[in-house]
Automatic annotation (TrEMBL), chain A:
Gene name in the database record: smoK
Domain spans labelled ABC transporter: 4-234
Database matches in InterPro entries: AAA+_ATPase, ABC_transporter-like_ATP-bd, ABC_transporter-like_CS, ABC_transpr_MalK-like, ABC_transpr_MalK/UgpC-like, Mo/tungstate-bd_C_term_dom, NA-bd_OB-fold, P-loop_NTPase
Cellular component per GO, a single term: maltose transport complex
Protein name as catalogued: Sugar ABC transporter ATP-binding protein
SMART domains: AAA
TrEMBL record, chain B:
Membrane topology classification: Multi-pass membrane protein
Listed name of the protein: Sugar ABC transporter permease
Keyword annotations: Cell membrane, Membrane, Transmembrane, Transmembrane helix, Transport
Transmembrane segments: 12-37, 65-94, 106-123, 155-178, 211-238, 258-282
Family: Belongs to the binding-protein-dependent transport system permease family.
UniProt keyword Electron transport present: no
Length: 334, 287
């Protein structure tokens, strides 16, 4: 079980309010990702749930029980830290055993759980090594192992992949998703990387300056961003946001169109511009187009290899059904 | 330091320092060795030639030798225990955020800057004087008989004085070590259900072990050579004669340079044995 509810939770450091009143429901077994730019309060929110920071006001309940004043160890949550926070003087086995040892668990049961976790995480050969002798990915797995053996109500991940190189990150992303499917335990995952959020989450919580901007499944957020912030944050490359005359013609203050929803042509189209930098990824080509009279740069994604050179004139046609219209307040217009 | 020329230039430039340091060490060492094999009584006939190992045998068989060794060890272990236990506690205390942190830290370090002779005199005359000392006043305030610290409990007094001098050093080294402890590790242990005491014993203390070893190593080397504190306070009386003080007495009070030098060679051997042990421990602790 691992249902977590936040009611009117606030957090202030001195006079600075980091988290204004906030409500959030996390269902049992859900993979929830907190995503937002750095300094948006997502890590603070996670630490509030973990109990490592005291909340200023409001209530946190876990599985229906008020956990607001319960110390972190008693909340039944396990956390994986950005720096892994392994105990450097203990072997991998002792690191994984530490929470069970603190709980004075039966030795046979400890050994059983360690073997199980080590097998699941490919750590069996490394149990007697020290963390210092392991690679980044292995350390990450030890940290996860230390969390698993507690059989917690929920796992909390605080940017766990940001210290890994790109290739390893993709691998660990899959492993964590796989782990979630297997354990079916609630997981809360903090990241600033929207790709991680999109690929892993059941539910994404987009945060800005402590406010929840939108909560929803990855595709909901992609299809129906509630405001310009979410529109710009979710999706890669970023959505083009066009203001002014062209937006007015479409009856909006800001017009949003994703790069993948614009068709390009060398001869005719709705909009016209000059090709700037072209990024060839093989499967796709991203064009940065200038002098359109719409915005400083319009990014367009063309499938496959398309031949335009720097400085060429290019014509673009947005797919009208994929246009997003936002009002002057930044909110999506119905 | 890549090319041949720069390497030989480096050697040439280092040479004066190396030669100076080597001479600084070798000249006294060789002179000590030389005198230890001779009968040399400056006021009773001067240098009277070779005696072989007579001085070495006499130094060890003297009735003051083993008491001096045990006094040295008691002093060493007492001071190490006090400075490390209090040092760890103080370091943890000073690591807590508090008002006036900078000033407090400087005050804690201050005793280390006081010359040994001065601090021993201050302790002897201001604190431990049986009639006018602060401690005597304190004892009388509570209606107790004042203690003649330096004659009744001379070793305890000496250990207190020396600990007071070395505690700042231990605290300083341990404080820097504790500051390098990763905060997330402590939080992880907290999440893992470790109590404050468990966090101290399982996380903080192992983290400090290397710093503690270094403190033990450095302090041992200096504590084996403690002299001023004994000279100023008890003058070696009341069973406070350590090995280094015994050597001093043999050379200057008994005017027997040969015998004292033999003691000096023993002290060198003892210090090296300790150093080898400690280096092994340090070596084990360094990854």
């Amino acid at each position: 079980m691992g249902q977590i509810t936040l009611q009117n939770v606030t957090k202030s450091f001195g006079d600075v309010e980091v988290i204004p009143p906030l409500d959030l429901d996390i269902q049992d077994g859900e993979f929830t990702v907190f995503v937002g730019p750095s300094g948006c309060g997502k890590s603070t929110l996670l630490r509030l749930i973990a109990g490592l920071e005291d909340i200023t006001s409001g209530h946190i309940s876990i599985d229906g029980n008020d956990a607001t004043d319960i110390p972190p160890a008693k909340r039944g949550l396990a956390m994986v830290f950005q720096s892994y926070a392994l105990y450097p003087h203990m072997s991998v086995r002792k690191n994984i055993a530490f929470p069970m040892r603190m709980a004075k668990m039966d030795q046979a049961e400890q050994d059983r759980r360690i073997e199980q976790a080590a097998a699941a995480l490919n750590l069996t050969d490394y149990l007697d090594r020290r963390p210092g002798q392991l690679s980044g990915g292995q350390r990450q797995r030890v940290a996860i192992g230390r969390a698993i053996v507690r059989e917690p109500a929920a796992f909390l991940f605080d940017e766990p992949l940001s210290n890994l190189d790109a290739a390893l990150r993709v691998g660990m992303r899959l492993e964590i998703s796989e782990l979630h499917k297997r354990l079916a335990t609630t997981m809360i995952y903090v990241t600033h990387d929207q790709v991680e959020a999109m690929t892993m989450a059941d539910k994404i919580v987009v945060l800005r300056a402590g406010h929840i901007e939108q909560v929803g499944s990855p595709l909901e957020l992609y299809r129906n961003p509630r405001n310009t912030f979410v529109a710009g944050f979710i999706g890669s490359p970023k959505m083009n946001l066009i203001e002014g005359e062209e937006a007015g013609r479409n009856g909006a203050h800001t017009l949003g169109i994703r790069p993948e929803h614009i068709d390009v042509s060398a001869t005719d189209g709705h909009w016209q511009g000059k090709v700037g930098v072209a990024e060839h990824l093989g499967s796709d080509t991203f064009f940065h187009i200038h002098e359109t009279g719409l915005a400083e740069t319009i990014t367009v994604r063309a499938p496959g290899e398309v031949n335009f050179r720097h400085g060429d004139t290019i014509y673009m046609t947005p797919r009208s059904e994929q246009l997003h219209r936002f009002g002057a307040d930044g909110l999506r217009m119905a | 330091m890549a090319t041949k020329a720069s390497r030989s230039a480096a050697r040439v430039m280092m040479a004066p320092a190396v030669v100076l340091l080597l001479g600084w060490m070798l000249v006294p060492l060789i002179m000590t060795l030389w005198f230890s094999f001779r009968t040399y009584l400056p006021l009773r006939g001067g240098d009277q030639g070779w005696t072989g190992f007579d001085n070495y045998v006499r130094f060890v068989t003297s009735s003051s030798f083993w008491p001096a060794i045990s006094t040295t060890l008691i002093l060493l272990i007492g001071v190490l225990a006090i400075t490390i236990i209090l040092g760890v506690l103080l370091a943890i205390l000073l690591d807590q955020p508090m008002w006036g942190q900078g000033v407090v830290r400087i005050l804690v370090i201050a005793p280390f800057f006081v010359m040994p002779t001065v601090s021993a005199l201050v302790w002897k005359n201001i604190f431990m004087d049986p009639t006018n000392g602060l401690l005597a006043h304190l004892w009388r305030f509570f209606g107790a008989e004042s203690v003649s610290w330096l004659s009744d409990v001379p070793m305890l007094s000496l250990i207190m004085i020396v600990s007071w001098q070395w505690l700042p050093f231990a605290t300083l080294i341990l404080l820097t070590a504790i500051q390098s402890l990763d905060g997330e590790q402590m939080e992880a242990a907290e999440m893992d259900g470790a109590s404050v005491l468990s966090r101290f014993f399982y996380i903080a203390l192992p983290h400090l072990s290397r710093a503690i070893t270094i403190v033990i190593l450095i302090q041992t080397i200096f504590l084996l050579a403690i002299f001023a504190e004994i000279f100023v306070t008890t003058g070696g009386a009341f069973g406070t004669r350590t090995l280094s003080y015994l050597i001093f007495q043999r050379v200057l009070e008994s005017q027997n340079v040969g015998l004292g030098s033999a003691g000096g060679v023993y002290a060198i051997i003892l210090a090296n044995i300790v150093a080898i042990f400690l280096m092994r421990i340090v070596g084990k602790n360094l990854d």
